[in-house]
Design a protein that fits this description.
The chain is α+β, with helices and mostly antiparallel strands. The protein has a single domain, classed as 2-Layer Sandwich (Alpha-Beta Plaits). It has a four-stranded antiparallel beta sheet. The longest helix has 20 residues. The protein starts with a strand and ends in a 7-residue tail after the last helix.
Length: 218
């Protein structure tokens, strides 16, 4: 429903990689921008639509507000806020269908499903979900630098946060690092408002959780 938030996630069939190179990541990220339009995908003339951002922003009527996103080689996570009725479901379907078509076309001879199942759409309803879901999405990419960090105590928070601030395929750096070329995809102000926090408090929550994740419900 309009005004609801949800955690969206999906992985490759048989846990296969869904992003094989930089072009794949970039295509998915572009779709986060271009498919988030009530009347359908926005068409742009330039090869890189992110360079034509003002035109895109002036034309589109959003299905959702994207609060957070993160891409790993074999799966993705999103945190969405519904703007129009049915927006989260429609946007999620568009992402999966469009990326599968692109991936199969690019990899000649491939056909069929790319993702394991329909994407999981997990409504955020409980207080614990408001607390942990953004942290889960933001820190998921930490697996790339420290695969076992969730099972350890006394993790190096600074090392992990520095990695996340430089990792290109996540919205994390648009919250805590230098603004990226993808900054227009997300709504940081709405995130802080909906989740009743601010940059300083939320960063402290992240640091505490990294240091001792096994004490939390991750």
């Amino acid at each position: 429903m309009v005004g609801d938030s949800a955690h969206i996630c999906n992985r490759g069939v048989d846990k296969r990689k869904i992003f094989l190179d930089e072009a794949d990541y970039l295509r998915f990220v572009r779709n986060l921008l271009l498919l988030n339009n009530k009347d359908g995908k926005i068409r742009v003339r330039k090869k890189n639509p992110l360079e034509d951002i003002q035109q895109i922003l002036s034309e589109r009527k959003k299905l959702v507000e994207i609060l957070k996103w993160g891409l790993l080689p074999n799966h993705y996570h999103l945190l969405l806020y519904e703007v129009c009725e049915g927006g989260i479901l429609e946007f999620t379907k568009r992402l999966g269908n469009a990326y599968t078509k692109y991936f199969n076309t690019k990899n000649e001879g491939r056909s069929g499903y790319l993702f394991q199942n329909s994407a999981k759409i997990i409504p955020i309803l409980e207080n614990s979900q408001f607390l942990y879901t953004p942290i889960y999405i933001d820190l998921n990419c930490a697996d790339l630098i420290s695969p076992n960090w969730k099972n350890l105590t006394n993790n190096n928070s600074k090392k992990i946060l520095n990695f996340l601030q430089s990792y290109r395929w996540s919205s994390f750096r648009d919250y805590f690092g230098e603004k990226s070329e993808f900054n227009s995809i997300i709504n940081t102000e709405l995130f802080y408002d909906l989740f009743d926090t601010n940059e300083k408090e939320y960063k402290k929550d992240l640091e505490d959780f990294i240091a001792n994740p096994i004490s939390g419900d991750f």
